[in-house]
Amino acid sequence: xxxxxxxxxxxxxxxxxxxxxxxxxxxxxxxxxxxxxxxxxxxxxxxxxxxxxxxxxxxxxxxxxxxxxxxxxxxxxxxxxxxxxxxxxxxxxxxxxxxxxxxxxxxxxxxxxxxxxxxxxxxxxxxxxxxxxxxxxxxxxxxxxxxxxxxxxxxxxxxxxxxxxxxxxxxxxxxxxxxxxxxxxxxxxxxxxxxxxxxxxxxxxxxxxxxxxxxxxxxxxxxxxxxxxxxxxxxxxxxxxxxxxxxxxxxxxxxxxxxxxxxxxxxxxxxxxxxxxxxxxxxxxxxxxxxxxxxxxxxxxxxxxxxxxxxxxxxxxxxxxxxxxxxxxxxxxxxxxxxxxxxxxxxxxxxxxxxxxxxxxxxxxxxxxxxxxxxxxxxxxxxxxxxxxxxxxxxxxxxxxxxxxxxxxxxxxxxxxxxxxxxxxxxxxxxxxxxxxxxxxxxxxxxxxxxxxxxxxxxxxxxxxxxxxxxxxxxxxxxxxxxxxxxxxxxxxxxxxxxxxxxxxxxxxxxxxxxxxxxxxxxxxxxxxxxxxxxxxxxxxxxxxxxxxxxxxxxxxxxxxxxxxxxxxxxxxxxxxxxxxxxxxxxxxxxxxxxxxxxxxxxxxxxxxxxxxxxxxxxxxxxxxxxxxxxxxxxxxxxxxxxxxxxxxxxxxxxxxxxxxxxxxxxxxxxxxxxxxxxxxxx
Length: 683
Description:
Number of strands: 20
Number of helices: 25
Strand content: 5-15%
Distance between the termini: 73 Å
Shape: globular
Oligomer: single chain
């Protein structure tokens, strides 16, 4: 591993923070923390921490010895000085004299000694940083170090690699006891430049930020060199033959992982998926001993919090008919849930039955020939779990190339997964109303499409925007409206390809907002068949085309779904010269109800919104001008021509779509969004 230290960048950090009254040591601590956090082979998703000891002044003007230590919730790769809150050092040092301290009391005491009460909680390993008498301390979960420690003779190998330069600490769960053990090891080896925490990670020390950082790079490089010396070929693959694609099986996998909710109207607790299929992953999942090495445990303890202790292994999905495979895969997931429940029941008695079982669904799914899927409550969580799963592949591959991968015990994995500090975080987590849902919005680059996407994202959903490729779609995606998916909704192949992209990216679809449309005008007796057919193709058949594809995905998931259609007041209150637009919209209104009738038993709801006079690609500024002139009123009066006397906006339509998505007992309904137009009311 190469050092990323730059004298120029280091000087820039010192200069940048000096203007805020931050000293050189803390500025360089921020800089090297970022260097560590930017390298995924060292630090990933909350693993690792850093500290520096120094002086700070409290509100009374007193100068105090403090420990600046990474705070909970901060990403080391982007950390700023507030991410290293100052904790009074003397009270922490005094704790070394006591024999025991609960995690809750430890966290409380650390918070009580913060100089800023609004600062984040100091790291759970704060006491370890405090008790090791060195100025700068770095801690990582370096892949290479884990390869050395995660095997039967890990301690022996680490002593061979590091000699007296690093003290060895046996595996102990993070907290007070680990801090005591680390202090004892450091005290017994005062010349040691670092610590190796077996099955956990590396610590390095230094009198300067540069020294501690460079030592970490050196220690990791030594581990990498040892791995290369002992490497042998692993994972003699069993070729599964022709297999289905990730996009083909993702909705089925996603549906298997969903947990049925009890109470509160029922429904499902869904997950967002992330798929990975690098050559290393494909070799790993194709290994003939996958059922052995994948079922040993996590490569570092805290992975269990995001990935659970073990993944589930599914059979390879054959290309073609997937019905038989789906049955086998569901049986594997059901068996996983039963095994997880038994695991919980084995270990909960050690806590007098006080733990509350987490949902039993796997977080990582291994599929020979396809790769791995990871799940989370949102796309970010799924990506984090996938990153950790990919790290697991790398570490186990290297460990197996030397000897055999070995994790901590099942009981120790349970202790981490059901750690009281993590349980408290989960209990306090609040999800938005449509978290864990995937929404497709057609016509996503238009005014109503973008407003609708924003509404669903605000409600916690992941959103994919379908629209013709071009600057408008690119701009919508760049503005954060959602995943841009080029799609011509009048073309079967384009629609199928677009839904495949969404399945590969998020795992499936829960809500379809079929919104794409355009207005064709002309006297009905004079309009040509070609114009009428063109309008029907976009304003009716396209709705049917995307809905059919969405329902196919929803059926594979078996968790229901929601179909939402942008109909129009023209469907029930046609205007002169708008027949080419209103007639297919009337047919679409019938389509809304037909889907409600035929798919309600599958938990798939179908509802529509009848909007009127919305500034959009349908009602253009030119059309507003011509129609207001024809009525002899101003453009403003035309747009406010309703019972409420207010212009209806795209955001109003978006709110209606979100409301219908949340109305779990409503199907076959049409919600009018027109400011009040009695003539357009349904009869």
